[in-house]
Specification:
It is a multi-pass membrane protein. This protein is mainly alpha-helical and 433 residues long. It contains 18 helices and no strands.
Length: 433
Amino acid sequence: MTTSGARPLWQGRALAVLGILLCAFSLRSAVASLSPVIHEISADFPLSSAVLGLIGTLPPVCFAVFGLITPLLERRLGIERLTVIALCAMTAGLILRGLVGESVGLVLATAVIFAGVGMGNILMPPLVKKYFPDRIGLMMTLYTTAMACSTFVPPLVAVPVADAVGWRFSLAMWAVFAAAGVIPWLIMLMRRTTDPAAPALTRPGIAEAAPEDPDFAATGPIATSPSSRRLFARLARIPLVWALALTFGTSSIMAYVAFAWLPVIMVEVGHVSASTAGLLLSLFAFVGLPSSLLIPVLVVRFHATRPLFLVGAIGGMIGILGLLLAPLPGLLWLWTVLFGLVGLLFPLALVLISIRSRTPESAVLLSSFVQSVGYVLAAIFPVLVGVLHDATGGWTVPLLVVGAMLVASIPAGMIAGRRRTVEDEWERRHGAW
């Protein structure tokens, strides 16, 4: 239940709300705006299969690499300054991507974008925890919904805009949101510099507002902590951390496998047209939108982590079995919706990163560890599915492997449902954090 100490969302934090939402929108729009206009780009300069494959592999690779680098940079620069740097990288990359004239430039500009996105992915949960400790459920709902919406909007408008004014403008226009996201954070940084009486940008609101859920609040001392390097090493020794990583990794695997292969599977197994396969992929993505609205509140207020995880995992398994056993055109919509329930795992994992740590500082490290491991898995599985398809000449074995991953993730989901922080787990096993 929400405590009486919770204060209005906008009270003293309007800039943080705007900064987080604009950054969250940019994280997905930067990724989703390219693939719809690939054909228009290739009409201007050649894009080989190798280049397209490299661009497809860049997101999880950059997310994993910059997920590991981000805590080191945050330690030196602070979370707000690093957020500004991440948004500036996205802005510059998006503009450059609209100006390139050959494939190498396209790859390099895309890498700059994904470097910024990789840092932003890690910083969002700690920012929510830092500025909204009393409103984690509500703010995570807004944040994950912004990300979900920015997954749908670019594919819908990219091609019409490209047809009207060209693909370069269609790609570069998304820089507006990333650039706008810089402004609130710069204002907060300047206020701190020019006004000595302004509150420090260190866990604002902690002193005057109680956490939304006292069970997830700090259960021990908050102020004193070892170095980030030592903390990162400790995280690798905590089973709860690996359970969170596997939960996030499973979500990422399902998303990247679906976006890479689901249309092909629908055409070859379900015998539908390419346009219908594209609609089914959109349906798969759309299923995750309601979950972004509901899951943060269900987890923070009602502790529904385990039931939600089971709904996502079991629904995904039933969808895969349906594709294997009854791939009839009239049933593909049902199997797609059921498989799309794995979309519950993404907002679930993001909320858990925020509430399974005591402080924003440890949340940065936990976010880095969990997302880096998850994106490494996400980079491997789409390639593995393609290799298995080529080796077996069909989709039965690849789909069974994807389903087996969901089965293997269930114990991790149960462990992630424990209402403890990573600091609690360490202290229970090893003593003082």
